[in-house]
Amino acid sequence: MKIVFMGTPDFSLEPLKELVKAGHNVSLVLTREDKKRNRGELTPTPVKELANSLNIPVLTPSKMKDEELIKRLKAENADFFVVVAYGKILPKEILDIPRLGCINIHASLLPEYRGAAPIQWSIIDGREKTGITTMLMDEGLDTGDILKQYEIIIDKKETGGSLFERLAILGGEAIVDTIKNFDNIKPIPQGETTTEYAKMISKSMGEIDFNKSAVQIERLIRGMNPWPSAYTKYQGKVLKIWDAELADDISEIQNINLNENYGKIYSFNSRIFIVCNQSVLEVLSLQLEGKKRMSAKDFLMGKEIEQGYKLGE
Description:
Number of strands: 16
Structural class: alpha+beta
Number of domains: 2
Number of helices: 8
CATH superfamily of the largest domain: Formyl transferase, N-terminal domain
Order of helices and strands: EHEEEHEHEHEHEEHHEEEEEEHE
Largest sheet: 7 strands, mixed
CATH topology of the largest domain: Rossmann fold
Helix content: 10-25%
Strand order of the largest sheet: 5-2-1-6-7-8-9
CATH architecture of the largest domain: 3-Layer(aba) Sandwich
Shape: elongated
């Protein structure tokens, strides 16, 4: 099959690699424009770097409704356009170009978690499973007919980073399988979504609200790992919490009133606890501003916790 590939971040790399490995003719790659990084130097996207290494021609159009771009895409005579986290909306003029259609790889079991950050939100919301959906693109946002779905279980200690890696690999396998079996697939229209729109993650979303339960906060910590991380403030400094769990044995802090001490931190026997809404969170790994990440035990060896300090202030 002749394919035009469109993608930008790391998540797009495995699908592109697998398509080439499977013997498909990826004749052209579209990706976002180079970005200015340190010292104003222009840095190419991960997909552009990979395409260059594979000697595949690359375009970085600033806009999609461009006559020259559309003319070039038509000239490719592609069977499919494959789109993976490209970051630009394709107009109908482009969607109609490939012979067999535009296929999108989405990191959720659609119609759940349409939007930009399905991986993180599936963890934050406490879902038990997720997966990859391949779909035929239409003019809506993640609303096209479903081709195939590939399901995986979300591990109880899954982080945004680990799930990202697993789904990226699965995405590569999924697109090759979908194209291989395309003639025998009957596209299925999506139903109504049962989840909130998976809006893009911002740094501010990592700030911990201790008025929430320990279960909710533990999910946030995992979902925000590695970026932007879940954080609060301790004695005026940013305190990142990298790993935590619901405290099932709170005998050491049984005298603490769980109704009115939300956000207060305590340490007992080399363990760190934070009071949340009607529950207690045990912190397993943390990082104080200016310091390296460490276990609770190592942290307490170098710094005593001010007992009952209210975090976030």
